[in-house]
From TrEMBL:
GO terms for molecular function: 3-dehydroquinate dehydratase activity. Homododecamer. It comes from Planomicrobium soli. It is an enzyme of class 4 (lyase). This is 3-dehydroquinate dehydratase. SUPFAM superfamilies: Type II 3-dehydroquinate dehydratase. The gene is aroQ. GO terms for biological process: amino acid biosynthetic process; aromatic amino acid family biosynthetic process; chorismate biosynthetic process; quinate catabolic process.
Length: 146
């Protein structure tokens, strides 16, 4: 099984920004934890981060072309603004699970709308960095069910 974890804008600032919302862990620490989890569960995982919308779209397209088994996506603020990323998800045959470290529904009103949710396989929000492992687990279970 091959899964891609994509992180969008400002997630490279984890551990430095808004610690009350995002915690004190860094992106490198998070990715290291996820890679260990992948090794334990015996699947392939690649992690990428970009602050650029077009690069995220390119990676989504590549994932569809490469026939990956799933994508965990934290699109950051693009969740609430990017129809282009929404369309990229809709254009591929790979299940995408949308994740958010903070509970976006307990935050500013503009964060309550997700362009990704209608085309994602699911959404996990508000459980800190655990949202990533929960999403990976969901993709593993989905793959087992066929």
């Amino acid at each position: 099984m091959r899964i891609l974890c994509l992180n969008g804008p400002n997630l490279n600032r984890l551990g430095k920004r808004e610690k009350e919302a995002y915690g004190t862990f860094t992106l490198a620490e998070l990715e290291s934890e996820l890679m260990q989890f992948a090794e334990q569960q015996n699947f392939e995982l690649a992690c990428r981060q970009s602050n650029h919308e077009g690069e995220l779209i390119d990676w989504l397209h590549e994932a569809g072309d490469d026939k990956l088994d799933g994508i965990v996506l934290n699109a950051g603020a693009y969740t609430h603004t990017s129809i282009a990323i929404r369309d990229a998800i809709a254009a591929i045959n790979v299940p995408v699970i949308e994740v958010h470290i903070s509970n976006v529904y307990n935050r500013e009103e503009f964060r309550h709308h997700s362009y990704m949710a209608p085309v994602a396989a699911g959404q996990i929000t508000g459980f800190g960095k655990d949202v990533y492992k929960l999403a990976l687990h969901a993709l593993l279970m989905r793959n087992q069910r066929g």
